[in-house]
Design goal:
Elements lengths: L16 H15 L5 E8 L4 E8 L10 E3 L4 H9 L3 E3 L11 H8 L4 E9 L2 E10 L7 H38 L8 H22 L3 H10 L12 H4 L7 H24 L8 H10 L19 H15 L11 H11 L6 H9 L1 H10 L7
Antiparallel strand pairs: 1-2, 1-6, 2-3, 4-5, 5-6
């Protein structure tokens, strides 16, 4: 009665998404050994960015830590407009295409591709790619099977991201319910999240961070101050310097943040969500300092890299934003301040990474500008 073995049974477990995609790939290659790469790229509408997310490429990943504007890719726009998959059985047809992603795929010597647009509730979510080193492999029989596998992979990726976005929505809703009135506006959170993404991409190689980790740090960084829900407005909105007792109370927001994260995950049944640790670390440790002078006295390597990244991104945006008690600093002044504290308060690699991305920083400031406080 139970002789049949479900070949995809492992997907029922608590594997991280990259391992699930690899598992699907291995199973797929048993039927079609010419499928050499599966890649998921997700779309961020606020910035029009397509961002590499997860892949299974047998060790070869030509688009690691890559992002590009959808507006800059005519071929991908055509797929989206058609709302249907695209099959190319000879990628030499794209040898003259100037887009960087096309050049990288060609340099890796992939010879054919199948691209499926992904949608969630009718909204564009991203693209799924199947690539092969051989030409003319995507016939109707293969495509019929890949359609089904593609839907499965899409659902896995969408579920992973929507779980994260649900956590974000719950935090925002809770903040509104308790009439939380911090001066940190939506534009501030958008800016610092994008700054964090710039930094993590720059330091990813040193810390062996993959595309999915980059995305989760981007998604979770706006939740760094969720513990402030538990701090009174009389302290949060005080225009002057806090008294010692008030500052001691303010410092408890990191601990409260960790408690809120744990409660959310428990109530949602996500205690073992693969990347929950990133969210916890950001909430708990974004006020630690390299020299141990932070809230909990942690030093350098004791501090998780995601907390170091968020610390630099958050402080830079606070410095360059107007507050009730201060004028906005120039980027030059803020960069000089970060540099002066690099190696003592802030991680030197993270500071250098942000400064090296000055052009992108200015683009983010322009995109998420605001005319009011914050």
């Amino acid at each position: 009665m139970f002789e049949h073995q479900d070949v995809l049974a492992a997907l029922n477990g608590k594997l991280p998404l990259p391992e699930k995609i690899e598992y699907v790939h291995v199973s797929l290659k048993e039927r079609y050994d010419f499928i050499d790469r599966i890649s998921v790229v997700i779309y961020e509408p606020k910035t029009d960015l397509l961002k590499t997310f997860v892949h299974s490429s047998d060790g070869d990943n030509p688009l690691n830590l890559y992002s590009a504007k959808l507006a800059d890719s005519a071929s991908l726009q055509q797929i989206l407009k058609a709302g249907r998959p695209r099959v190319i059985n000879d990628l030499e047809l794209f040898n003259d295409v100037q887009a960087e992603h096309a050049r990288r795929i060609a340099a890796q010597q992939y010879r054919s591709s199948y691209t499926m647009p992904m949608f969630m509730n009718g909204e564009f979510f991203g693209f799924l790619f199947f690539n092969s080193y051989r030409k003319n492999v995507f016939d109707e029989t293969t495509l019929h099977y890949l359609d089904m596998v593609g839907r499965l992979v899409s659902l896995l990726a969408i579920h992973d991201i929507t779980t994260t976005r649900s956590l974000q929505a719950i935090v925002k809703t809770t903040a509104n319910m308790v009439q939380h009135h911090d001066v940190e506006t939506g534009a501030h959170l958008d800016r610092m999240a994008n700054y964090a993404r710039l930094v993590v991409k720059e330091v990813a190689k040193k810390y062996s961070l993959n595309d999915d980790i980059v995305e989760y740090i981007f998604l979770f960084s706006p939740l760094h101050d969720i513990g402030k829900i538990g701090i009174s407005d009389s302290i949060l909105l005080k225009p002057g310097k806090l008294m010692e007792a008030e500052f001691d109370t303010m410092k408890t927001h990191t601990m409260k943040g960790g408690e809120i994260v744990n409660l959310m995950l428990e109530n949602l049944g996500l205690d073992e969500f693969p990347h929950a640790g990133i969210l916890r670390n950001i909430a708990l440790y974004h006020h630690e300092a390299i020299n141990g002078s932070g809230y909990n006295g942690m030093k350098d390597e004791e501090i998780p890299i995601e907390a170091k990244i968020v610390s630099v991104a958050d402080v830079f945006d606070a410095l360059t934003s107007t507050r009730p008690y201060k004028e906005a600093w120039s980027n030059d002044k803020a960069f000089m301040f970060l540099q002066s504290m690099a190696g003592t308060k802030f991680d030197s690699d993270c500071v250098a990474a942000l400064i090296n991305c000055r052009e992108e920083v200015e683009a983010i400031q322009k995109r998420f500008n605001e005319d009011r406080l914050g």
